[in-house]
């Protein structure tokens, strides 16, 4: 099924490109489906679940999520404004640096 692309006009060539790209997407989806079926068959043959191997639900909700990004208890509190706290991670807040410049020590700001 060789196509002589030199004989195609601009519209025909664009149409061919769109059809080729659509076909590429179909082939990629078919490949993913085949691999998924193979993995499920292997898990079934071994008598284990997806969750046992990969943990959690596994789907898109887990993908890309960093581990250990939960909230951390604060270690320091601003004496001038008790609402302001800092966990000790990341960049120091302005109030923390200002307190240190004013002569306070880290232990003075600890909760």
From TrEMBL:
Residues 63-111 form the DNA-binding protein H-NS-like C-terminal domain. Keywords: Coiled coil, Cytoplasm, DNA-binding. The keyword Isomerase does not apply. Residues 10-37 form a coiled coil. It is found in: Cytoplasm, Nucleoid. One of its GO terms (cellular component) is protein-DNA complex. Residues 58-93 are annotated as: Disordered. GO terms for molecular function: bent DNA binding; DNA-binding transcription repressor activity; minor groove of adenine-thymine-rich DNA binding; transcription cis-regulatory region binding. SMART domains: HNS. The keyword Zinc-finger does not apply. It comes from the Bacteria. Belongs to the histone-like protein H-NS family. This is H-NS histone family protein. It comes from Dyella choica.
């Amino acid at each position: 099924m060789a196509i002589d692309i030199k004989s195609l006009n601009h519209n025909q060539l664009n149409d061919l490109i769109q059809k080729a790209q659509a076909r590429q997407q179909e082939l990629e989806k078919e490949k993913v489906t085949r691999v998924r079926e193979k993995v499920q068959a292997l898990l079934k043959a071994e008598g284990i679940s997806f969750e046992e191997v990969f943990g959690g639900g596994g789907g898109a909700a887990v993908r890309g999520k960093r581990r250990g990004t939960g909230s951390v208890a604060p270690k320091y509190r601003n004496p001038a404004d008790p609402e302001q706290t800092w966990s000790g991670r990341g960049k120091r807040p302005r109030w923390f640096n200002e307190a240190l410049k004013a002569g306070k020590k880290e232990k003075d700001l600890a909760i």
